[in-house]
Amino acid sequence: MLKVFSHYFPSHTLQQILFDAFLLFVAVLVAVVMQLNTEMVQWYTVVPSALSFALLMVILNSAMGLYRPLASESHKNALTRVLLSIVVSIPVAYGIFGLLPWEGVASEAMQVSVLLLLGFVLSMRGLVNRRRASSLFAPRVLIIGTGTDAVAVQRALTHPVQSGMEIVGFFSPSGEDAIEVDARKVLGRGERLLDVVRKNRVNEIIVALRERRGGVLPLHELLDCKLSGVQVIDLSSFFERVQGQVRVDSLRASWLIYGDGFRQGVGRTIVKRCFDLAAATLLLVLTFPIMLVTALFILIEDGAPIFYRQERVGFGGRVFRVIKFRSMRTDAEKDGKPRWASSNDDRATRVGRVIRKLRIDELPQLFNVFVGDMSLVGPRPERPYFVDQLAKEIPFYAVRHCVKPGVTGWAQVRYQYGSSVDDAIQKLQYDLYYVKNHTLVLDTLVLFETVRVVLTGEGAH
């Protein structure tokens, strides 16, 4: 895993991106050479332009989710993902061709050739990513522990997205009796940890134990491993790095206080606010026709009101009124009792079901962004009734209120529609990751992921 602007990216994914960028770069150069004699090619112009084109194409498709290996997805979803990348990439590629300084070089035949290869590369990448990915420099990982936490780490590492990491086995410290992993994969019984690490050429150790002071945790042996060049990480750091979440069950207040991240400085706030205003203005202009049509359909089916206003808890625990297109019947909560909304809520109107699936009902929240109650990207704002309930049941739930709530967010694009306390815990773990690591890079990534979720109809919300 590589950390770029406070966000972690799988190393094997970056290798795939670089490989595809190199392939497109070479393809453009070959197309130019086939069109012109090498003596006529202005290399000082063509090479930087070809490199820019290749990098922009793979970055765009990376943001659209093409490089996320999902081995368990259906053929239909894989095909949808590839077609989406091709449909978005070809118009953008034509636009880039028009901006590049290629007068007398980029003929129509050359552009068609490059676009055909672009479609081929995207198609092959979509098919390859349905298989388990591998990395040229896959780290060899040893898991310390054999209990439930070790099982959770193994499950996370064998997920397709993280298949670039190789699990060597498990190490059971003296004093840990419970073995819930495959006993055949437990290494070095009675041996020193450092000897096991050297014998199995381990690059990284993941400590899947809760006890940190004494007990079964071999602190001195872990220190020896670290001093000999082996990376050692704990559970909290592991889940943050691999799954993009801060796990509540392994979280401590001291980690929040002394750990990296959770910086909410004035400079960051100003930059984020400027980004929100610029992006919200652009989105409002682009989606205004869609909003007009939606308002008309709501009126025709169920009459007024068009908009739905509801109290939500925002920055610093302050209550504000969020505005959305009304997607449910006017008597949805006639008994006055708040209810969780669900993905197939029978209270939704026919128009409401469509606009909720396409996330069109969220568009009026752009006005909340303009007045400063919300940000484009942030934790989903909840109703005061549910906030009071969740704050009593879930540790550190109030931490999500140290940033403005968002129209979309890291939790919304990473987790399906939530309608229970357990779902709220899962989404909180993603929210905590966002609060800890939010930057403009992560905000931009979330916005691209939101577009992908909407266009592919995935279940995240």
UniProtKB/TrEMBL annotation:
InterPro entries: Bact_transf, EPS_sugar_tfrase, Sugar_tfrase_EpsB_2. Keywords: Membrane, Transferase, Transmembrane, Transmembrane helix. Its main location: membrane. It is found in: Membrane. The keyword Transferase applies. Residues 272-455 form the Bacterial sugar transferase domain. Pfam families: Bac_transf (PF02397), CoA_binding_3 (PF13727). GO terms for molecular function: phosphotransferase activity, for other substituted phosphate groups. GO terms for cellular component: membrane. It is a multi-pass membrane protein. The chain crosses the membrane at residues 17-37, 43-66, 78-97, 109-128, 277-300. Gene3D superfamilies: NAD(P)-binding Rossmann-like Domain (3.40.50.720). The keyword Cell cycle does not apply. Belongs to the bacterial sugar transferase family. This is Sugar transferase (PEP-CTERM system associated)/exopolysaccharide biosynthesis polyprenyl glycosylphosphotransferase.
